[in-house]
Amino acid sequence: MAQKSLIALSQLSRTEKRLVNAARRAVLNAYCPYSNFAVGAAVLTVGGKIFPGCNVENCSFGAAMCAERVAVFKAVSEGYRPKMIAIYAPDAPKRAISCGCGLCRQVIAEFGLDIVVLKLRNDGLVIRKTLSQLFPNAFVPGILLSKQKVQGVHHGKSKKTRR
Ligand SMILES: [Zn+2]
């Protein structure tokens, strides 16, 4: 059965609520003196661990990093793989439908188009969609990896299991 993509906060599972709350807390650490647009995110890993992230801006604007990517990079750099990600932007319009920028979607897509994105809106409702819904026709690892396989190139796949 297809899941509804716009749901009440109270309808989320316990784990989903934990993740959304982690994203809400992460907003408090946002470093955004230039945009004043704080964003919090939190990644749930395959093994159930949560990694929060916030946006980190820079006086050299191009060096800024989104909350979503901070959270994903934290999880991956610790040897984990994302399964779900929650996003919260308290200053976004009440019913904004945005679920992260294109760069963040590309980064999340690296780890699976089945990753679930939860975006807490400011009307209290949550958008719940998979990456494949948010990022159709994505450029995914299989495109490069199949090419390398043909050429016999080692693709540096981690020995670690997904956790
Ligand atoms: Zn982004």
Annotation keywords:
163 residues, alpha+beta, Cytidine Deaminase, domain 2, six-stranded mixed β-sheet, 20% strand, globular, binds zinc ion
Summarize the helices and strands and which ones pair or pack.
Layout: E1 6-8, H1 14-26, E2 40-45, E3 50-54, H2 67-77, E4 82-88, H3 102-109, E5 116-120, E6 125-130, H4 131-134, H5 141-151
Parallel strand pairs: 4-5
Antiparallel strand pairs: 1-6, 2-3, 2-4, 5-6
The secondary-structure class comes to alpha+beta
Largest sheet: 6 strands, mixed
Give the helix level as a range of percent. 25-40%
**Number of beta-strand segments:** 6
Strand content: 15-25%
General shape: globular
Please name the fourth-level CATH homologous superfamily.
Cytidine Deaminase, domain 2
CATH fold category name: Cytidine Deaminase, domain 2
Bound molecules: zinc ion
Would you mind describing this structure in some detail?
The structure is a single chain. The protein has helices spanning 14-26, 67-77, 102-109, 131-134, 141-151; strands at 6-8, 40-45, 50-54, 82-88, 116-120, 125-130. With 163 residues, the protein is α+β, with helices and mostly antiparallel strands. It has one domain (6-138): Cytidine Deaminase, domain 2 (3-Layer(aba) Sandwich). Strands 1-6-5-4-2-3 form a six-stranded mixed sheet. The protein starts with 5 loop residues before the first strand and ends in a 12-residue tail after the last helix. The model has no long low-confidence stretch (mean pLDDT 92). The chain binds zinc ion (ZN). Zinc ion binds at residues 66, 68, 100-101, 103-104.
